[in-house]
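Researcher: Re-running this chain for the archive, since the previous output was lost when a drive failed. Same request as before.
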Amino acid sequence: MQEFEMKRTVKQAGKRVALGFVVLAAVFILLIMNPFVKIGAGERGVLLNFGAVQQDVLGEGLHLRIPIMQTIVKMDVKIQKSETRSEAASKDLQDIKSVIALNYHIIPDKANWVYQNIGVEFKERIIDPSVQEAVKAVTAKYTAVQLIGEREAVSTAIKESLSEKLTGYNLFVDGFSVIDFSFSKKFTDAIESKQEAEQFALRAQRDLERIRIEAEQKVAQAKAEAESLRLQKAQITPALIELRKIEAMREAIAKWNGTVPNVLLSGGGATPLLSLDGLMKK
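Model: Regenerated structure tokens:
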């Protein structure tokens, strides 16, 4: 009896050990097969069945896949930045160099299409060539001078053209800016010379205007002075002159100290210089 109990105990222990090995093996297989996939924030999962892209796009969170059969490729759908150097020509055949900064992102629901048709290296395959094409197409419509004076309109036109092109690849343009926009040294020197000439002409015009205004002021002042003299002359009448004489005599009498100047005569005598009687009679 005791021997039977011992055999049963050993048999149960063997089963538990075997069960433990099975569990461990199952856990080990699960770890190796990795049936769970986590899609992080700003990502989408492209589901592949034996390498074939499926229509379903996996959103953020934890997803279960069938090991060996299914593979999930993570695609970044957050806004990304790209800088592209471009060379083009204006309408008047001036060489133009520019650096274009672009913010874009993959349209989340179309991540599987982007992966299937473009792959993950879409900047080199799609972004850069599209930027080059858009810049060349737009700048060819403007002269170099127009590109300088209408830069905002040119930037808007390039952005619209680029957005239209990239939308066809399920890439959305979030922002666009022209970081650098330069011309050949010969053209730049010509523009600087033209600006200097315009500034010189403007200064000369201002000087001529100042001289003209000063001359007009002098003429106006001379006319005013002449008019003043004319008015003063018009006011001088014989009666006014006689009045001024009488006023001058009265002032002289008022200041007289009572001594009459004398004039020596040849006979040695003296006679008054002024006749007081004659003066008073006046």
